[in-house]
Amino acid sequence: MAEKFWCLSQLFVKPEMQAKGIGQALLSKTLMQAELNGAANRALITFAYNIASTGLYIKNGLYPREPLYRMAAPAQAVAQIPADAGCDITPIAPRPESGEWPAGEWIGRIDQELLGFRRDLHHQFLLGGGAARAVRIEHAGRAAGYAYISARGHVGPLAIAPGIDAKAVVTTALRCALEGGARQVSLLVPGRADVVMQTVLALGFRIEVPLVLMASRPFGNWGNYLPRDPGFL
User: Fold this and answer.
1) pTM of the predicted model as reported, rounded to 2 decimal places
2) Mean of pLDDT over the chain
3) Could you tell me which CATH number the domain at 5-68 has?
4) 69-209+222-226 in CATH: which number?
């Protein structure tokens, strides 16, 4: 839960145990938890080709809202981006155990504008887990967005502040992904993110896996926000 927004991270049933009501029983329990906590919206990301899971979610009122594509390219393809991609970057430090967290306010503002809610605990988890490093992307001295980058070169979540040049933010994040020596760079691109899609296709990115965002109600600015993976919005 993030404020009144509920998101299902992972739900698995062994293939040999499917079609026996187990998935519905598990989903019913977690949807009950969402109701008890006053969720105003419910969402998840799943594989678009998995008709069993998408059918289960549709049956429970979560409808396809946005196609997502995991896209990847070799590191050498990304290396063609000019070193000066138009934006500056600053590392985002983890939240201290006590005291104020300077990054919290501007990150919260971007999340509110793009998703409709803050997700402070999500950022605390990502920054504290060591699985990814985070950078603040700046343009002309103002926050243009943020990006999390894994050691394997995966970029996401990636947020682009409204009114900012999306191409400049994305290419800056992709350049950052090369710094860890990853062999390839990947990210999840929403179908509505025209500028992002055009930018990565021009660099040689290709679709690896089709996914779909499902939710009980439409939400989000999917031209400016790229989720992390199917288990983490």
Assistant:
1) 0.94
2) 93
3) 3.40.630.30
4) 3.40.630.30
